[in-house]
Design goal:
The protein folds into 2 domains: 112 residues, Glycogen Phosphorylase B (Rossmann fold), CATH 3.40.50; 154 residues, Glycogen Phosphorylase B (Rossmann fold, 3-Layer(aba) Sandwich), CATH 3.40.50.2000. The chain is 36% helix and 16% strand.
Length: 298
């Protein structure tokens, strides 16, 4: 890979997935810290622009506009060749894709892999894992120490623990003196309104930056493998993440704050684990894992 010069201009095109976007910001932060001019293009990044005050963030180009918008950059970096880069009309002489970094067999988390990519492939010797996310003024970190943000959804249904067990978990945590609240996307609220009948709060937060502010002032996070878990970890909120398989957890666990992962009971094949993990993972095991997370911060 051709070495970047201090005067180089780099475009980083983020995934439409929130977790991938936050991970890619590790690359952005390290390039910026080493004096490389970086422009970021991404839908989620635009929504969180106030949390990345030193970064030039612009909306994601469309497949039609990408060839023109990205033509003036010395290098284009993306996680995969999808979205605007998938257009047959798109061409750039220096495109770096991180798909091989994502798919490599490695014991390291994706956050650690991207930090290593910055060191080994981009030649940034002082690369760090922090993605540069910074809270705007006026917010107090973990202000509501007993509030537990529970995120019961994910990008695909197979990543989701059973709704009834999330409710039982919330009720158990409430008995322990915590204030569990469910956080879901606006389009998911109707499906999860039933939790309010149990006295469980379901705050209507709206935009992603408001979700970030609410998470930043929460004491804890518990949820499925999802972008919201990565967001909480980026904000240095302790996380407990529920995964279908240990290999996935090793790679995609949130990589910034103190965190723990918990998976279902052992089953002999990956297919069985993906299908039945949610049934083998008990509420008691999740509560024990949360106790271990608390002890790690004691």
């Amino acid at each position: 890979m051709r070495a970047l010069q201090p005067a180089s201009r780099v475009a980083v095109v983020l995934s439409s997935a929130l977790g991938d976007s936050l991970l890619m910001m590790i690359v952005v932060r390290n390039l910026h810290a080493n004096g490389v001019a970086v422009n970021v293009f991404g839908r989620n990044a635009v929504a969180l622009a106030a949390w990345f005050p030193d970064v030039d963030i612009q909306p994601e180009p469309t497949p039609d506009t990408a060839p023109v918008v990205l033509a003036g950059f010395d290098r284009v970096i993306a996680m995969r060749r999808n979205g605007p880069l998938a257009s047959p009309d798109f061409y750039h002489a220096d495109v770096v894709l991180l798909e091989s970094t994502c798919r490599a067999r490695s014991p390291k988390s994706m956050a650690d892999r991207l930090m290593q990519f910055c060191r080994d492939e981009l030649g940034l010797e002082q690369a760090a894992k922090h993605n540069g996310m910074t809270a705007p003024d006026g917010l107090q970190h973990r202000r509501f120490r007993n509030r537990i943000a529970i995120h019961p959804t994910a990008s695909t249904h197979d990543k989701c623990w059973l709704p009834s067990r999330f409710v039982r978990l919330a009720l158990r945590l409430r008995k322990l003196g915590f204030h569990p609240q469910f956080v879901v996307a606006p389009q998911e609220r109707e499906a999860w309104a039933f939790v309010e009948a149990y006295g469980i709060d379901l705050p209507e937060l709206g935009s992603l930056d408001k979700v970030a502010a609410w998470l930043y002032e929460s004491g804890w996070f518990i949820g499925n493998d999802s972008g919201i878990g990565h967001l909480a970890s980026s904000l240095q909120v302790p996380t407990l993440s529920l995964f279908m398989r240990r290999g996935l957890a090793r790679t995609w666990q949130p990589g910034w704050a103190v965190g723990r992962v918990v998976v279902g009971a052992y089953l002999p094949t990956a297919r069985l684990r993906e299908r039945y993990w949610k049934y083998t993972l008990s509420v008691a095991r999740v509560v024990r894992a949360f106790d271990q997370l608390r002890e790690a911060l004691a």
